[in-house]
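Progress report, Aim 2. The chain analyzed during this reporting quarter is listed below.
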Amino acid sequence: MRVSVFSMILVVVVAASFAPQCQASGWEALVPAIANKLTSLWESGEFELLGHYCSFNVTPKFKRWQLYFRGRMWCPGWTTIRGQAETRSRSGVVGRTTQDFVRKAFRAGIITESEAQAWLNN
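Predicted structure tokens for the chain:
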């Protein structure tokens, strides 16, 4: 695991230790909510890009005490190019990662300018 994962776990443990004591039913509701929030920071999946299946993953990262998201994508069976991006936006990191991939694929001559522009303009 990376330092950012340990940092997030440490923050949750410290915050939980300062929280006011509540009944067991309160903790039973609080723990799953915190666990769900933490696990939702990571994501991986697949999508289709220009007729090829591609994979992506998103991981959280702390940088200067701020939460960032690092995205990576690749298209196995098509090219060895990898798209990468880092942003504060959880919802926008996959789009930025894919834009990076499309730009690199265009520079490498794998896709045409019209294909790149059609995807980047949408």
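The chain has one domain: 23-121. Residues 45 and 56 are 6 Å apart (CA to CA). These observations will guide the mutagenesis work planned for the next reporting period.
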